[in-house]
Amino acid sequence: MENEKLLVCVVLSNEFLKSQYNNIMKKLLIIAALLVVFTTACAQGNKTKENKEMKTLVAYFSATGTTEKIAKKLANVTGADLYQIIPEERYTDEDLDWRNKKSRSSVEMMDKSSRPAFIKDLKNAQSYDVIYIGFPIWWYTAPTIINTFLDTYDFSGKTVIFFATSGSSGIDGADKQFQKQYPNINWKPGKILNGATEDDIKEWIENL
Prior knowledge:
Elements: H1 2-53, E1 56-60, H2 66-78, E2 81-84, H3 104-110, E3 130-136, H4 145-152, E4 159-165, H5 172-181, E5 186-192, H6 198-206
Parallel strand pairs: 1-2, 1-3, 3-4, 4-5
C-alpha cells in the first residue's frame, strides 16, 4: 500500500514539474518574440529618424522638360529641396541636335574641359548631406554643365546619386567618369528613370 502511494506521489510530482516546465517555456518564447518585435521597431524608428535628419537636395538639369518631371517626383518622394540647374544661355532645338557635330551640345561634349555657365543661386549648398543630381544622357554620359555644378559647389564627403533620362544609353558611363573625376565624393550607383512612377522611385531608393 505504501509503495502504491509513493508511486502515485512520484507520478503526480512529475506531471506537476512537466506542467511547470511547459508554462515556463511558453513564457520564455513569448518574451523572446516580444524582444524581437521591440528590437525591430527600435531599429526602424532609428532609421526613420536618421533619414529625417539627413538634409537632401534634388538638383537637375533639364533641356526639354523630361528630366524635370522625374526630378519633381523624386523630390516629392524624398521630401528633398528641389533645385534647377539653369544654363545662363538656354539651349535651343538646334543646340541640342546631336547629329550635327557643330551644334552647341556636340561641341561641348567633345571638349571634356567644357564648363557651360549656369545661374549660381543655390543657397547653403554645404548644408546638404545627400544630393541627387539629374540630367539627360548626352553622348553616353552627363552634360558638361554637371561638371560646372560640381566644380562650383564642393560636395566632398557628401553622398551624391545620379539619376537620368535617356533615349537608349545607360548611366554607367556617367557614374564611372564622375567617380574618377571627383573621388572625394561618396558616390552611390545612379539609375535611368525613364517614365518612372513615384512607386518605382520609392523602390529604387529603398534598395540604394
